[in-house]
Amino acid sequence: MNDSISVSELGERPLISRLSGIFSSVHNPDVTLGAGPDDCAVIDISENEYMVITTDMLHRKTDFPLCMTPWQIGWMSAAVNFSDVASMGARPIGFLSAMGFSKDTDLSFIDEISRGMNDCAKFCGTSVIGGDIDTHDELTITGTALGKVNKSELLTRRGAKPGDIICVTGFAGSAGAALHALENDIDIPDSLLNTLLEPIPRVNESQELARTGALTSMMDTSDGLAMSLHDLADLNNVGFKIDEKSLPIQQEIVDFVSSESSVLADFALYTGGDFELLCTVSPDMLEAAQSACYLNVIGEVVDREVGTTLRCRNGENLTINRKGYLQLGN
Amino acid sequence: MNDSISVSELGERPLISRLSGIFSSVHNPDVTLGAGPDDCAVIDISENEYMVITTDMLHRKTDFPLCMTPWQIGWMSAAVNFSDVASMGARPIGFLSAMGFSKDTDLSFIDEISRGMNDCAKFCGTSVIGGDIDTHDELTITGTALGKVNKSELLTRRGAKPGDIICVTGFAGSAGAALHALENDIDIPDSLLNTLLEPIPRVNESQELARTGALTSMMDTSDGLAMSLHDLADLNNVGFKIDEKSLPIQQEIVDFVSSESSVLADFALYTGGDFELLCTVSPDMLEAAQSACYLNVIGEVVDREVGTTLRCRNGENLTINRKGYLQLGN
């Protein structure tokens, strides 16, 4: 590979693979899963439990819509990390926050960010256990979240196989629709706006689901449904058949996005920020999974060569493209 | 407290205390020590072991001297965190890195940063196990380091008592002198420059020291010797008598800093970036501690009311001020 190219020319996913290659050169006996495609690294801590850990950097310009309150900024910084912990079936046990802000930042602004983090950690059954403060022109927050999980209940992105059912814990496209409303000055209910500004990490659902033993793989939908499906497809060497009529689209967004089903499907597939859990379930254990928490069945896992497609209302099969929310290129 | 003041008016240490107050409002049964004055949070993971975790945010402008190579930037980002793990007597078990850089950053630059992190993690007996990449105007790196420690060997900043001996693992003021040389275009040997640009986290010394059971408290000297002494003094309600003639000043810096002992003492006390370990030792176990690793005795722990003072070569006792390297105000 030619080294004189920029990181955006390479793109986010290939860059992650490249760095994982550098980082995997050292054997680490403490680590069960590391520096790879999963949402968290997994550390062996005792006979029965793993610890999972994840870190996520957020910035004022790119990650926090202008209308966000400081409390929401704090909540969001914690929520994105706890969502990754949830993706592994783990119980959150702590959050660390490294914050960079300019020297003239008002103290009450930092207090409110901290309260938002604290409230999100509390909602997730845990607390903020450490951090760092630093000076910086642009507000920057790097969160790190930790969880514990019984070894038998750990879920990763690997394990989906043809015949499994694919499900999602809530709606798809709601946060994207809320962002669309914000960007176009469309007035929407607070409840919908909050799917974007105060996302709920599915930490309880995650643990309930993991306990059933019914799931074969899991990840969150923060980069959008299509991107998540493609990540699972690549890792497991499978494809997905998704039913357009089963896409869990929140009724309220129809009013201001479009009543056209193809437009709604695009929002559900190709916008990010929802932080729901996407999981594959053994077909004979679907009932057990559905008894654990509210779960929308959206399709099935198929052979790789079938590809990842959307079975439209008109009977047509459309390819679901690999696109969604990415920081760097595509 | 009036909320309309800025964070720099409040200062770094009071801000940390204030945020710790917000974060300590939630009880967390998984956490033994959290969100407080120590270098790491401490998590209970099994019958015999604790996990320690720390996070640190670094920026291009404030934390990486201009002459730093990308490899050194990566090394430094990992080293500052591993030094915090070392401060607790723990064995490093992993590192996570969240990096923000502009889209036009050259790929080879990111590769080199990653190799520097990887090499530092390898030096510390572990590896890079996860991370995040993000776009950002200014290069920003938040590292998170993890360690494990036997419960009986955990060291914290608390425990120093009058009569204990205070020691440091290496020199004081070397990194500060190197920075002074850089800022004044003074040519110095690479070995000295590298105390600033490629600091060695004392991870091996730390574990050897912890095993002796001779230490009563420990922290690193990254914010400077004076600041570290005051942190220990405040937490333990003690003072320190430091011998000027025992200050471990590297001979090479005399050549370009000054031959005047008071100037050299100022460098040793009031400049940061050394990443040595500062520890208090039970007087009857000093020999055991000194057999574990190279250790400079610099003075003794005294009663609080005696204060923290420097016994000068001329017999005078000078107050050691609370100053050093801080991000925000004083």
TrEMBL record, chains A, B:
Binding residues annotated for Mg(2+) 2, in chain numbering: D56, D84
- Quickly give the catalysed reaction: thiamine phosphate + ATP = thiamine diphosphate + ADP
Give binding positions for Mg(2+) 1.
T55, D56, D132
Q: In which pathway does it act?
A: Cofactor biosynthesis; thiamine diphosphate biosynthesis; thiamine diphosphate from thiamine phosphate: step 1/1
InterPro entries this protein is in?
PurM-like_C_dom (IPR010918), PurM-like_C_sf (IPR036676), PurM-like_N (IPR016188), PurM-like_N_sf (IPR036921), ThiL-like (IPR006283)
EC number(s) reported in the record: 2.7.4.16
Report residues binding substrate.
Answer: D63, Y325
Q: Does the keyword Transport apply?
A: no
Answer yes or no on keyword Cytoplasm. Answer: no
Q: Which CDD domains match?
A: ThiL
Residues annotated as binding ATP: G131, D132, R157, S222
Q: Which GO terms describe its molecular function?
A: ATP binding; magnesium ion binding; thiamine-phosphate kinase activity
Miscellaneous note of the record: Reaction mechanism of ThiL seems to utilize a direct, inline transfer of the gamma-phosphate of ATP to TMP rather than a phosphorylated enzyme intermediate.
UniProt xrefs under PANTHER family? THIAMINE-MONOPHOSPHATE KINASE
Q: Which family does this protein fall into?
A: Belongs to the thiamine-monophosphate kinase family.
The entry's protein name is Thiamine-monophosphate kinase
Q: Which gene encodes it?
A: thiL
